[in-house]
User: Fold Peptidylglycine monooxygenase from Patella caerulea.
Amino acid sequence: MEFSFGLVVLSLFISVTFSASLVSDVKSLAHTDNGMPSDVETIELRMKKAIPNVDDAYLCASYEMPDDEVYIIKYEAIANASTAHHILLYGCSDGPAMSTPTWDCPPLCKGSEQIMFAWAKNAPPTVLPKDVGFRVGGKGESSVKNIVLQIHYAHSSTAPDESGIRIYLTRQKQKYVAGIFLMMSYRLNIPPNTPVVHADISCKYFGETSMHPFAYRTHAHDLGRVITGYQYNTTYHMIGKGNPQWPQAFYPTKEDIEIKPGDSLIARCTFNSTGRDRPTFAGATGKDEMCNFYMMFYTDSSVTRTFSECGGSHYPNLVQSLPADSDKPLPPNPLLDEKAGHHHLHHHTAVVKPVETPTPPPQTGQSKKTDLIFESQWPNENVDIGQVSGVATDDDGLIYVFHRGSRQWDQYSFDIYNQFQQKNDPIKEEAIMIFSKDGKVLRSFGSKQFFMPHGLAVDKQKNIWVTDVGLHQVLRFPPGKDTPDLVLGEKFVPKTDEKHFCKPTDIAVLSNGDFYVSDGYCNGRIMKFSANGTFIKQFGHLDVLQSTDNSPGAFDIPHSLTVAEGKGLVCVADRENGRIQCFDLEGNFRHQIKHKEFGDRLFALEYSPIHDGILFAINGPAIDTSHTYPVQGFTLNLQTGDLLQIWNRPKGLSNPHDIAVNPSDHSVYVGELDDNLWKFAMQHTDTIIPSPEKKELIPVLSSDNDEEKGVDTKKSSSVTPSIVLGVLLVVPVVLVVMITILVRMYHSGKCGKNKGNKVFNLQSFFNSHKGFDRLSTEESDHELDPFDGSDEEEYTAPAKRKQRT
Ligand SMILES: *[C@@H]1O[C@H](CO)[C@@H](O)[C@H](O)[C@H]1NC(C)=O
Ligand SMILES: *[C@@H]1O[C@H](CO)[C@@H](O)[C@H](O)[C@H]1NC(C)=O
Ligand SMILES: *[C@@H]1O[C@H](CO)[C@@H](O)[C@H](O)[C@H]1NC(C)=O
Ligand SMILES: *[C@@H]1O[C@H](CO)[C@@H](O)[C@H](O)[C@H]1NC(C)=O
Assistant:
């Protein structure tokens, strides 16, 4: 039976009016070479030392937006999922509901509010499609002047919390504005013990310009099984299908949909009340149900009202002929289902289910969210590259390669004092190459500058960092430049002091510009420097026993570095010990990861914030040829160390040396010393959204569930003529208002108004690209074969290396 009847309330949450002055800064309209705005700033919307002293607390803090119109182009959580169950951002045009630094919420905003973003566990940073931004700030009557951060805490705690969301802003006017369109049912009447109950919403879109949905989110409470959304223009086009028991993030749409003025929109929620002996009605608490389908869309930037909604079913005929699978649940997804256990915490009245222990995903079997599949040799066009020692990506998904051209690392490359032996013979090829996602060479440089390329990293500013083990130096190249603006270490001079390196292997850069260097083959330490190159500290020590000392901080070739800044960790591929060691950002040992599948040697690792933090890693072949194991790739949970997946190319990897993860589509690149580069694709694509112009893949955000409980009942709506979604019915509005008032009374605390603190940081968040993981559990005595191949440069541990040469 269907119980939602028709009212269509059309609310328009924001009508943004922009002051002309906003666009005045013409020079800021320039973009950098790679198409990213050059002026990106960040604001950290953090809880202001909130103390969630009860279970299930919902707390809020407010932040004022700039006086000028700006565009949010990226959201990134600064949160630990064990603390913050989920986070929502709401835009307020009339100020926050309270003036205290933090408050119990709802209430959220003084007047109307609209949901702008949602984050739940596992959600990677959300980057909007290119040329698309959420418009905030400015002084217009309905512009978003404050953003209220709402966190649903997982547990009570006495520790002041400062979790939040970092937003990336540009002042450059974007070609398209993003908005949210909400379809919801205000009335539900779900009978007891009924396996399939529908609630439908149908309305017509009468906006002025087409909407292009790129992400969607579903929301219901415990009885919700599946929620689907469609566009109808003579045929049905599915916008999205979601399981509301999964983390209620915004998931990318799978197909390109254009909703033109006059098209119809239909959403269907399907409930199963089996086991519940009472009827269930619409409402915000866990006893009640909700039925919401959100679309995140972009549209022409001339559109001023970007938040709107419709409710009720005005076109029952359209609903009757919905595709037959509209109420068929999605197939089970172990990774997402597991999280559902937490959802119930949201509801005050719900029974708290025991939280399942996260199940370490099986090795290779069925497909999971993090599964990588081999895609291709990459780039596919014929490009002449030598031994690939370093591979990295930038935030735009470009791929950087550091290779050795015609040079090989062999037993004659260094003497026993680690002195490079061909000082008059720099590599003649362009050792640094930058590729587009489709494998085209965009730029190459570095001819006659390098001797034995090793590590490569690209920071958020797109500075290119490299280490050259022949030079014993670390060099930084600003974007577009062929000469370094920072050179550390003395050319060709290996030493152990603070101003020198000895065969440094890798670099990882923090968002504030401070960076780490793994140094390296002979010193066995990690060094930390401030952004200007001043030495800060070093940690770790040479594993003098070579592979028998597995104590924390002992390194037998720290070969690759990655930072998981949001987790406060820097992790090192401790190559010849076949393990990953993770430290806090100050260098205190935190944990190690070692699996027997790593074999003896772990070469490289890279962190990705997706799925609450994973490491991708590659191992390397055994030196002791009597002890063989597969050379392959690994996906690991950063914090638990669980091995989530083993992946490989069909013919196997042979000498992988470095790994990089594309931050936008999470594809993984592996560079080998056998002059090869391989690409592995993330099998599930639901963190990927198409960009409006090109069909590039860009990660989307995610959000969580229930916290928007207030959403349907509380929004005050202002009707705008320009987007008429349906018929405005008086009764439902009154109902909504009453519910709103009740909810607010229920939650009310003191009132006041307050401007949040504004924190502006120059944009400086970048991931260091380099991360690698790997490990081995079995010790092996790596005797080096003095004649082993030339591409084994990195085989030898330092002492052995000496003998070898
Ligand atoms: C409804 O829920 C019950 C109990 O969880 C389950 O056994 C049944 O298969 C479900 N029915 C449908 C149609 O989803
Ligand atoms: C209907 O919508 C689909 C998807 O948005 C689009 O590809 C198609 O061209 C539209 N058809 C008409 C007649 O507008
Ligand atoms: C480099 O930065 C550090 C801290 O950030 C500062 O103490 C030091 O004076 C700076 N050095 C130079 C040469 O600017
Ligand atoms: C996340 O929070 C939990 C509980 O407070 C803590 O044990 C864990 O170490 C935290 N993780 C990180 C990376 O901070």
